[in-house]
Write a structure and sequence with these properties.
The chain has 315 residues and is an alpha/beta fold. The protein folds into two domains: 3-132 and 147-207 and 298-304, Spore Coat Polysaccharide Biosynthesis Protein SpsA, Chain A; 223-293. It has helices at 16-26, 47-57, 72-82, 102-110, 128-144, 161-168, 177-184, 207-221, 224-252, 260-293; strands spanning 3-9, 34-40, 61-66, 87-90, 115-123, 153-160, 188-195, 300-304. It has an eight-stranded mixed beta sheet with strand order 7-5-6-4-1-2-3-8, sandwiched between helices. Strand 1, helix 1 and strand 2 (34-40) form a beta-alpha-beta unit. The radius of gyration is 25 Å and the shape is elongated. 29% of the residues are buried. The protein binds uridine-5'-diphosphate (UDP) and magnesium ion. Residues 8-10, 12, 41, 69, 71-72, 75, 92-94, 96, 203-205 line the site of uridine-5'-diphosphate (UDP). One of its GO terms (molecular function) is glycosyltransferase activity.
Length: 315
Protein backbone atom coordinates (compact mmCIF):
# COMPACT_ATOMS: atom_id res chain seq x y z
CA UNK A 1 0.00 0.00 0.00
CA UNK A 2 1.65 3.20 -1.14
CA UNK A 3 1.00 6.15 1.15
CA UNK A 4 1.43 9.88 0.48
CA UNK A 5 1.53 12.58 3.13
CA UNK A 6 0.88 16.08 1.83
CA UNK A 7 1.92 19.15 3.82
CA UNK A 8 1.56 22.77 2.66
CA UNK A 9 4.25 24.97 4.21
CA UNK A 10 4.37 28.73 4.33
CA UNK A 11 7.22 30.13 6.42
CA UNK A 12 7.49 27.02 8.55
CA UNK A 13 11.30 26.76 8.76
CA UNK A 14 11.26 25.97 12.48
CA UNK A 15 8.54 23.35 12.36
CA UNK A 16 9.57 21.21 9.40
CA UNK A 17 12.31 19.07 10.97
CA UNK A 18 10.16 18.35 14.03
CA UNK A 19 7.31 17.47 11.69
CA UNK A 20 9.50 15.06 9.69
CA UNK A 21 10.64 13.50 12.96
CA UNK A 22 7.15 12.77 14.16
CA UNK A 23 5.84 11.86 10.74
CA UNK A 24 8.57 9.34 10.01
CA UNK A 25 7.93 7.73 13.40
CA UNK A 26 4.23 7.50 12.57
CA UNK A 27 5.12 6.10 9.14
CA UNK A 28 7.28 3.26 10.48
CA UNK A 29 4.86 0.47 9.46
CA UNK A 30 4.83 1.81 5.90
CA UNK A 31 8.49 2.80 5.76
CA UNK A 32 9.35 1.75 2.23
CA UNK A 33 6.02 2.56 0.74
CA UNK A 34 5.51 6.18 1.57
CA UNK A 35 6.39 9.68 0.53
CA UNK A 36 6.10 12.99 2.38
CA UNK A 37 5.32 15.84 0.02
CA UNK A 38 6.28 19.23 1.38
CA UNK A 39 4.93 22.12 -0.68
CA UNK A 40 6.73 25.40 -0.19
CA UNK A 41 4.05 28.01 -0.77
CA UNK A 42 6.25 30.97 -1.67
CA UNK A 43 7.90 31.19 1.74
CA UNK A 44 10.06 34.18 2.53
CA UNK A 45 12.12 32.46 5.23
CA UNK A 46 14.37 29.38 4.95
CA UNK A 47 11.55 26.90 4.44
CA UNK A 48 12.90 25.69 1.08
CA UNK A 49 16.42 25.21 2.48
CA UNK A 50 14.91 23.31 5.41
CA UNK A 51 12.99 21.08 3.01
CA UNK A 52 16.30 20.30 1.29
CA UNK A 53 17.83 19.44 4.67
CA UNK A 54 14.84 17.23 5.42
CA UNK A 55 15.54 15.32 2.21
CA UNK A 56 19.03 14.52 3.45
CA UNK A 57 17.56 13.04 6.63
CA UNK A 58 14.67 11.33 4.95
CA UNK A 59 15.05 10.38 1.29
CA UNK A 60 11.34 9.80 0.84
CA UNK A 61 10.64 13.50 1.33
CA UNK A 62 9.51 15.20 -1.87
CA UNK A 63 9.96 18.95 -2.15
CA UNK A 64 7.75 21.10 -4.35
CA UNK A 65 8.35 24.80 -4.59
CA UNK A 66 5.58 27.01 -5.94
CA UNK A 67 6.52 30.03 -8.00
CA UNK A 68 4.94 32.37 -5.45
CA UNK A 69 2.50 32.39 -2.54
CA UNK A 70 -0.83 31.00 -3.68
CA UNK A 71 -2.49 30.34 -0.35
CA UNK A 72 -3.06 27.30 1.81
CA UNK A 73 -5.78 25.61 -0.27
CA UNK A 74 -3.90 25.92 -3.56
CA UNK A 75 -0.62 24.78 -2.02
CA UNK A 76 -2.49 21.77 -0.69
CA UNK A 77 -3.94 21.13 -4.15
CA UNK A 78 -0.44 21.24 -5.66
CA UNK A 79 0.68 18.60 -3.17
CA UNK A 80 -2.38 16.43 -3.78
CA UNK A 81 -1.78 16.53 -7.52
CA UNK A 82 1.80 15.41 -6.99
CA UNK A 83 0.80 12.57 -4.66
CA UNK A 84 1.25 9.07 -6.04
CA UNK A 85 -0.17 7.07 -3.16
CA UNK A 86 -3.15 4.79 -3.04
CA UNK A 87 -3.97 6.54 0.23
CA UNK A 88 -3.22 10.16 0.95
CA UNK A 89 -3.05 11.97 4.25
CA UNK A 90 -2.98 15.76 4.47
CA UNK A 91 -1.98 17.77 7.48
CA UNK A 92 -0.63 21.17 8.49
CA UNK A 93 3.08 21.76 8.89
CA UNK A 94 2.75 23.35 12.32
CA UNK A 95 2.01 20.06 14.14
CA UNK A 96 -1.43 21.21 15.21
CA UNK A 97 -2.69 17.97 13.69
CA UNK A 98 -1.07 14.94 15.37
CA UNK A 99 0.62 12.64 12.79
CA UNK A 100 0.22 9.79 15.29
CA UNK A 101 -3.45 9.56 14.33
CA UNK A 102 -2.36 7.99 11.04
CA UNK A 103 -2.54 4.40 12.28
CA UNK A 104 -6.09 4.89 13.63
CA UNK A 105 -7.10 6.50 10.36
CA UNK A 106 -5.58 3.64 8.39
CA UNK A 107 -7.47 1.12 10.52
CA UNK A 108 -10.79 2.87 9.85
CA UNK A 109 -10.01 2.95 6.15
CA UNK A 110 -9.28 -0.78 6.25
CA UNK A 111 -12.86 -1.17 7.46
CA UNK A 112 -14.07 0.27 4.19
CA UNK A 113 -14.26 4.03 4.67
CA UNK A 114 -13.12 6.23 1.79
CA UNK A 115 -12.41 9.33 3.88
CA UNK A 116 -11.38 9.59 7.52
CA UNK A 117 -11.38 13.20 8.65
CA UNK A 118 -10.18 14.71 11.91
CA UNK A 119 -12.72 16.50 14.07
CA UNK A 120 -11.39 19.00 16.53
CA UNK A 121 -13.11 18.41 19.83
CA UNK A 122 -10.82 20.80 21.59
CA UNK A 123 -8.62 23.62 20.31
CA UNK A 124 -6.18 24.20 23.13
CA UNK A 125 -3.79 25.80 20.75
CA UNK A 126 -6.03 28.47 19.32
CA UNK A 127 -6.96 31.83 20.74
CA UNK A 128 -10.44 32.48 22.10
CA UNK A 129 -11.12 34.71 19.09
CA UNK A 130 -10.15 31.99 16.62
CA UNK A 131 -12.21 29.38 18.47
CA UNK A 132 -15.27 31.64 18.60
CA UNK A 133 -15.10 32.72 14.95
CA UNK A 134 -14.47 29.16 13.77
CA UNK A 135 -17.41 27.92 15.83
CA UNK A 136 -19.78 30.50 14.33
CA UNK A 137 -18.34 30.01 10.82
CA UNK A 138 -18.94 26.26 10.64
CA UNK A 139 -22.49 26.65 11.92
CA UNK A 140 -23.43 29.50 9.58
CA UNK A 141 -21.83 27.66 6.67
CA UNK A 142 -23.85 24.58 7.42
CA UNK A 143 -27.08 26.51 7.71
CA UNK A 144 -26.37 28.14 4.33
CA UNK A 145 -24.93 25.25 2.39
CA UNK A 146 -26.81 22.48 0.64
CA UNK A 147 -23.98 20.03 1.37
CA UNK A 148 -23.48 18.84 4.93
CA UNK A 149 -19.92 19.92 5.66
CA UNK A 150 -18.66 18.20 8.83
CA UNK A 151 -18.47 20.72 11.68
CA UNK A 152 -15.14 21.66 13.26
CA UNK A 153 -13.21 19.80 10.61
CA UNK A 154 -10.10 21.14 8.94
CA UNK A 155 -8.09 19.68 6.11
CA UNK A 156 -6.55 16.99 8.33
CA UNK A 157 -7.78 13.76 6.73
CA UNK A 158 -6.85 10.48 5.16
CA UNK A 159 -8.46 9.81 1.80
CA UNK A 160 -8.19 7.05 -0.76
CA UNK A 161 -7.28 7.42 -4.41
CA UNK A 162 -10.88 7.20 -5.60
CA UNK A 163 -12.00 10.17 -3.48
CA UNK A 164 -8.89 12.20 -4.21
CA UNK A 165 -9.34 11.77 -7.96
CA UNK A 166 -12.95 12.90 -7.58
CA UNK A 167 -11.86 16.08 -5.80
CA UNK A 168 -9.00 16.75 -8.21
CA UNK A 169 -11.49 16.53 -11.06
CA UNK A 170 -13.13 19.70 -9.71
CA UNK A 171 -11.49 22.56 -11.58
CA UNK A 172 -12.57 25.51 -9.46
CA UNK A 173 -10.15 28.24 -8.46
CA UNK A 174 -11.85 29.21 -5.21
CA UNK A 175 -10.98 26.01 -3.42
CA UNK A 176 -12.52 25.08 -0.10
CA UNK A 177 -11.05 21.62 0.03
CA UNK A 178 -12.79 20.29 3.13
CA UNK A 179 -16.12 21.20 1.51
CA UNK A 180 -15.11 19.64 -1.79
CA UNK A 181 -14.43 16.32 -0.04
CA UNK A 182 -17.80 16.55 1.71
CA UNK A 183 -19.50 17.30 -1.62
CA UNK A 184 -17.75 14.37 -3.32
CA UNK A 185 -19.66 11.96 -1.07
CA UNK A 186 -18.40 8.37 -0.62
CA UNK A 187 -18.17 6.72 2.79
CA UNK A 188 -16.82 9.18 5.31
CA UNK A 189 -16.19 9.03 9.03
CA UNK A 190 -14.78 11.45 11.59
CA UNK A 191 -12.18 10.76 14.22
CA UNK A 192 -11.92 13.11 17.17
CA UNK A 193 -8.72 14.78 18.24
CA UNK A 194 -7.55 17.68 20.25
CA UNK A 195 -5.86 20.45 18.31
CA UNK A 196 -2.47 21.24 19.76
CA UNK A 197 -0.86 24.67 19.88
CA UNK A 198 1.32 25.67 16.95
CA UNK A 199 4.84 24.18 17.09
CA UNK A 200 6.45 27.54 16.29
CA UNK A 201 5.86 30.69 14.31
CA UNK A 202 2.62 32.53 13.82
CA UNK A 203 -0.71 31.63 12.26
CA UNK A 204 -0.80 32.35 8.51
CA UNK A 205 -4.49 33.08 8.76
CA UNK A 206 -4.84 36.62 10.04
CA UNK A 207 -8.36 38.08 10.18
CA UNK A 208 -8.27 39.21 6.53
CA UNK A 209 -7.37 35.77 5.25
CA UNK A 210 -9.98 34.22 7.51
CA UNK A 211 -12.65 36.47 6.02
CA UNK A 212 -11.57 35.67 2.46
CA UNK A 213 -11.52 31.97 3.28
CA UNK A 214 -15.03 32.18 4.77
CA UNK A 215 -16.30 34.13 1.73
CA UNK A 216 -14.82 31.50 -0.61
CA UNK A 217 -16.52 28.77 1.37
CA UNK A 218 -19.89 30.54 1.39
CA UNK A 219 -19.89 31.40 -2.29
CA UNK A 220 -18.60 27.97 -3.32
CA UNK A 221 -21.17 26.03 -1.39
CA UNK A 222 -24.28 28.18 -1.25
CA UNK A 223 -26.30 30.53 -3.37
CA UNK A 224 -28.49 31.45 -0.43
CA UNK A 225 -26.82 34.85 0.08
CA UNK A 226 -27.97 35.76 -3.45
CA UNK A 227 -31.52 34.92 -2.52
CA UNK A 228 -31.14 37.09 0.56
CA UNK A 229 -31.79 40.04 -1.76
CA UNK A 230 -35.29 38.77 -2.45
CA UNK A 231 -36.03 38.30 1.23
CA UNK A 232 -34.70 41.73 2.08
CA UNK A 233 -36.87 43.16 -0.68
CA UNK A 234 -39.97 41.67 0.91
CA UNK A 235 -38.92 42.84 4.36
CA UNK A 236 -38.34 46.40 3.21
CA UNK A 237 -41.62 46.36 1.29
CA UNK A 238 -43.28 45.41 4.55
CA UNK A 239 -41.61 48.30 6.36
CA UNK A 240 -42.63 50.67 3.54
CA UNK A 241 -46.26 49.52 3.77
CA UNK A 242 -46.28 50.40 7.45
CA UNK A 243 -44.82 53.81 6.66
CA UNK A 244 -47.43 54.38 3.97
CA UNK A 245 -50.24 53.66 6.41
CA UNK A 246 -48.70 56.04 8.91
CA UNK A 247 -48.30 58.80 6.32
CA UNK A 248 -51.88 58.37 5.11
CA UNK A 249 -53.15 58.46 8.67
CA UNK A 250 -51.21 61.68 9.36
CA UNK A 251 -52.55 63.33 6.23
CA UNK A 252 -56.17 62.39 6.92
CA UNK A 253 -56.02 63.86 10.38
CA UNK A 254 -54.26 66.98 9.04
CA UNK A 255 -51.20 66.45 11.10
CA UNK A 256 -47.82 67.40 9.75
CA UNK A 257 -45.86 64.38 8.54
CA UNK A 258 -42.71 64.06 10.67
CA UNK A 259 -39.88 65.96 9.05
CA UNK A 260 -36.46 65.18 7.68
CA UNK A 261 -35.36 62.75 10.37
CA UNK A 262 -37.67 60.02 9.14
CA UNK A 263 -36.76 60.74 5.51
CA UNK A 264 -33.05 60.53 6.22
CA UNK A 265 -33.56 57.35 8.21
CA UNK A 266 -35.58 55.74 5.43
CA UNK A 267 -33.08 56.73 2.75
CA UNK A 268 -30.08 55.48 4.66
CA UNK A 269 -31.87 52.26 5.58
CA UNK A 270 -32.86 51.46 2.01
CA UNK A 271 -29.52 52.46 0.55
CA UNK A 272 -27.83 50.23 3.11
CA UNK A 273 -29.98 47.31 2.02
CA UNK A 274 -29.27 48.02 -1.65
CA UNK A 275 -25.53 48.32 -1.17
CA UNK A 276 -25.49 45.11 0.84
CA UNK A 277 -27.23 43.16 -1.89
CA UNK A 278 -24.97 44.74 -4.51
CA UNK A 279 -21.96 43.74 -2.46
CA UNK A 280 -23.17 40.15 -2.20
CA UNK A 281 -23.72 40.04 -5.97
CA UNK A 282 -20.24 41.50 -6.43
CA UNK A 283 -18.74 38.65 -4.43
CA UNK A 284 -20.29 36.11 -6.76
CA UNK A 285 -19.59 38.05 -9.95
CA UNK A 286 -15.94 38.55 -9.01
CA UNK A 287 -15.59 34.82 -8.49
CA UNK A 288 -17.37 34.08 -11.77
CA UNK A 289 -14.85 36.34 -13.48
CA UNK A 290 -11.90 34.60 -11.88
CA UNK A 291 -13.29 31.17 -12.77
CA UNK A 292 -13.95 32.31 -16.33
CA UNK A 293 -10.33 33.34 -16.85
CA UNK A 294 -9.47 29.72 -16.14
CA UNK A 295 -5.84 30.31 -15.31
CA UNK A 296 -3.66 27.50 -14.01
CA UNK A 297 -3.94 27.22 -10.23
CA UNK A 298 -0.19 27.37 -9.61
CA UNK A 299 3.24 26.96 -11.17
CA UNK A 300 5.98 24.73 -9.80
CA UNK A 301 9.39 26.35 -9.86
CA UNK A 302 11.34 23.38 -8.47
CA UNK A 303 10.56 19.79 -7.68
CA UNK A 304 12.85 17.51 -5.73
CA UNK A 305 12.21 13.81 -5.79
CA UNK A 306 14.39 10.78 -6.26
CA UNK A 307 12.45 9.31 -9.13
CA UNK A 308 11.60 12.40 -11.15
CA UNK A 309 9.62 10.92 -14.01
CA UNK A 310 7.81 8.37 -11.88
CA UNK A 311 4.32 7.43 -12.90
CA UNK A 312 1.70 7.19 -10.20
CA UNK A 313 2.23 4.19 -7.94
CA UNK A 314 -1.38 3.85 -7.10
CA UNK A 315 -1.46 0.23 -6.01
N1 LIG B 1 -0.18 27.79 4.63
C1 LIG B 1 0.23 27.82 3.29
N2 LIG B 1 0.05 28.97 2.58
C2 LIG B 1 -0.51 30.10 3.12
C3 LIG B 1 -0.95 30.04 4.47
C4 LIG B 1 -0.76 28.87 5.19
O1 LIG B 1 0.73 26.83 2.78
O2 LIG B 1 -0.63 31.10 2.41
C5 LIG B 1 0.00 26.54 5.41
C6 LIG B 1 0.74 26.72 6.73
O3 LIG B 1 2.12 26.64 6.56
C7 LIG B 1 0.18 25.54 7.54
C8 LIG B 1 -1.23 25.41 7.01
O4 LIG B 1 -1.27 26.06 5.75
O5 LIG B 1 0.88 24.35 7.28
C9 LIG B 1 -2.27 26.01 7.96
O6 LIG B 1 -1.92 27.34 8.25
P1 LIG B 1 -1.96 27.92 9.73
O7 LIG B 1 -1.42 26.90 10.68
O8 LIG B 1 -1.27 29.24 9.75
O9 LIG B 1 -3.49 28.12 9.96
P2 LIG B 1 -4.29 27.94 11.35
O10 LIG B 1 -3.90 26.60 11.90
O11 LIG B 1 -3.85 29.06 12.21
O12 LIG B 1 -5.71 28.01 10.95
MG1 LIG C 1 -2.05 25.97 12.23
Amino acid sequence: MYLSIVVPCRNEQDAILALIDRLSAALTPWRDQSEIILVDDGSTDDTWETIQDARLLCPFVVGIRLSTNRGHQIALTAGLEAARGARIMMLDADLQDPPELLSDMMRLMDQGYDVVYGRRIERRGDSLFKRATAHVFYRVLNAMSDVAIPQDTGDFRLVNRKTLDAVLAMPERARFIRGMFAWAGFRQIGIEYSRAPRHSGETKYPLRSMIRFAADAMTSFSTKPLRLATRLAFATLGVSAFMAVYVAWSLIFHQAVAGWASVVLAISFFSGVQLLTLGIMGEYIGRLYIEAKNRPLYFVSEELRDTPAARPLRK
